[in-house]
Specification:
The complex is a heterodimer. By secondary structure, chain A is of the alpha/beta class. Chain A contains ten helices and twelve strands. Chain A has one domain (about 10-285): TIM Barrel, CATH 3.20.20. Chain A has helices spanning about 15-25, 45-50, 75-85, 115-135, 155-165, 175-185, 190-195, 225-240, 255-270, 280-285; strands at about 10, 30-35, 55-60, 90-95, 100, 105-110, 140, 170-175, 200-205, 210, 215, 240-245. Chain A has an eight-stranded parallel barrel. In chain A, helix 4 (about 115-135) packs across helix 5 (about 155-165) and helix 7 runs parallel beside helix 8. In chain B, the strands form two sheets. Chain B has a three-stranded antiparallel β-sheet, sandwiched between helices. In chain B, strands 1-5 form a two-stranded antiparallel sheet. In chain B, a hairpin with a 2-residue loop joins strand 3 and strand 4 (about 200-205). Chain B starts with a helix and ends with a strand. The chains are: A alpha/beta, B alpha+beta. Chains A and B meet through helix 2, strand 6 and helix 4 of A and helix 1, helix 2 and helix 5 of B.
């Protein structure tokens, strides 16, 4: 398919503002956390605008709560739309999860039961959000630690069905597949093979931590070898997909993260052809 | 319409996060390696950890002042009392002053509330709405007949803090990782605002504090001159108010004169 390819990016973190502003490091794009910039003014928005002048961006949110049974939060959507207009990102994403109910926010990405009723519920809400924002959104798979008795299908079937019915796009988190596969005892390759590759616009890579025999998606470590291996298999299966590393805790120097991103670049270069990895000029110059 | 079953499940799951007794466990599969309860515990412990991280980031000087044990207790009380109703964790700790003002033993130690007020004022000033501040030349453009009705619109980051104790020196010491001075009663009024992306603060004398309070409420120039009479004579008052206005403009506190 003609999937837009942005190249290799990093999550923009406050710890790295100064380095990015002063050195304009060689990174194809940045992913911003939408909620960090849904503020009235000051340094966050100033830094965002300044860095945006030099870099392509995508937006990534955590509070859309697309699977909640609360009404969609209109204030949140209004602020998200305003930020979209400000940033003009290539795309925006959030998670296939719920975060709130009865107006109370957990600030966690909570899993949904994988069944027909949930598919109908979530797909309808995605359509409403896309209509309001006037564009498709990307949904991302979670790391999860529980399976509901009400679930009737594997996660990838559930995910495909929602994406298809809502006509939305997919952000595939390779680490989250690895974490959930470990915690729920499935083969991560089944997930890769099961997903509809046509809708995948972006990959996330991240590190995780062990808690006894469970893996917790902490984003506080380097990407591990098992996840790099799975990334290679995902590239073999889907072709070139815009890739970034998410680091949210125990954040190292920017140069260290940039070094880690070069591992992704090398794996992609060894797996795909230069033609597959060429960044579309229209996207490169879109800023 | 959302599925009733899904809604009940979400309410039950959330109740579990909040420490309530719910039936969520019957919805969760147990496996050989982990029971449903153990799996749910990952979410309930993560919930509190995440909120505590947000509180301790927003109120790190209060944390230093109280120490690990008392701050942990304060966070537990806060989390049990206040739920998050905002999509961003940035706003979760916004009710801390309410708790510190009303709940013992914290309300018995007034500098805790003052310290939290200072930290929250800085947090607010950090990302308050932008506005283009005016330059000193704006004063020359004011028509003579307009002065009496002139009102001042301040930068939205500007806040006044009236403190009964020496809490600002305590805050400053904690900011520099120094041992804070002993907390004593020493009333003062402080102003916190943002100038060129950086939060600023300074102490105010009695006259300036009184005038800023009035001006912030929308008092016009005539009213400010009247207020100044408590600190000055009738002849000097207007010039002193103008001098203060010049100071505020130079400090990039003023967005508009109308």
């Amino acid at each position: 398919m003609d999937r837009p390819f942005l190249g290799f990016g990093l999550g923009l973190r406050t710890e790295h503002y100064q380095h990015v502003l002063e050195n304009k490091p060689d990174v194809d794009w940045f992913e911003i956390l939408s909620e960090n910039y849904m503020v009235a003014g000051g340094k966050p928005l100033y830094n965002l605008d300044t860095i945006r002048e030099d870099y392509e961006m995508v937006m990534h949110g955590v509070s859309l709560s697309i699977g909640s049974t609360d009404p969609l939060n209109k204030d949140y959507l209004r602020d998200l739309k305003a930020l979209l207009e400000r940033v003009q990102p290539q795309w925006l994403s959030d998670h296939l999860c719920w975060t709130s109910v009865d107006g109370t926010n957990s600030h966690d990405l909570l899993p949904l039961p994988y069944n027909e009723a949930t598919i109908n519920h979530v797909a309808e809400r995605v359509r409403q959000v896309q209509d309001y924002l006037g564009r498709q959104i990307l949904l991302e798979n979670l790391s999860s630690y529980v399976t509901y008795n009400e679930s009737e299908m594997p996660e990838w079937e559930f995910f495909n069905e929602i994406a298809s019915r809502a006509d939305c796009l997919v952000l595939l988190d390779i680490n989250n597949i690895f974490v959930s596969a470990h915690n729920h005892h499935f083969d991560p390759i089944d997930y890769i093979k099961g997903m509809d590759g046509e809708r995948i616009m972006q990959f996330h890579l991240a590190g995780h931590s062990y808690s006894g025999d469970m893996i917790i998606d902490t984003h506080d470590h380097d990407v591990c070898n098992d996840v790099w291996d799975l990334y290679k298999k995902a590239l073999e299966h889907y072709g070139a997909v815009s890739t970034m590393i998410e680091r949210d805790d125990n954040i190292p120097e920017f140069s260290e993260l940039r070094q880690e991103l070069s591992i992704a670049e090398k794996i992609a270069a060894n797996t795909l052809s230069p033609q597959q990895l060429s960044i579309l000029p229209v996207l490169k110059g879109a800023a | 319409m959302p599925s009733t079953e899904l809604r009940k499940l979400q309410q039950s799951f959330f109740g579990h996060l909040l420490g309530e007794k719910t039936d969520v466990v019957k919805h969760i599969q147990s496996t050989v390696d982990r029971s449903a309860e153990q799996r749910l515990h990952i979410y309930s412990s993560g919930y509190r950890l995440r909120l505590k991280e947000a509180i301790s980031t927003d109120l790190d000087k209060l944390y230093s002042y109280l120490g690990d044990e008392m701050f942990e207790h304060l966070m537990d009380v806060y989390i049990d009392t206040y739920h998050s109703h905002h999509p961003s964790l940035r706003y979760y700790s916004q009710h801390m002053c309410e708790l510190l003002a009303t709940q013992k033993p914290f309300s018995d130690v007034p500098e805790l509330l003052e310290l939290a007020r200072i930290e929250q004022a800085f947090n607010f000033s950090f990302d308050a709405a932008d506005c283009d501040t005016i330059g000193i030349e704006s004063i020359a453009k004011i028509q003579a007949e307009s002065w009496a009705q002139l009102t001042i619109q301040f930068h939205s980051s500007m806040q006044l803090l009236e403190l009964q104790k020496n809490t600002f020196p305590v805050w400053k010491a904690l900011s520099q990782n120094q041992t804070p001075p002993e907390s004593v009663f020493d009333a003062s009024t402080w102003m916190i605002w943002r100038k060129q992306l950086v939060s600023r603060f300074r102490v105010l004398d009695e006259a300036e504090a009184a005038l800023l309070r009035e001006a912030k409420k929308g008092a016009n120039f005539s009213r400010l001159c009247e207020a100044m009479l408590s600190f000055s004579d009738e002849e000097q008052a207007p010039m002193q108010v103008i001098a203060l206005l010049q100071t505020w403009i130079n400090e990039q506190l003023v967005c508009h004169l109308s």
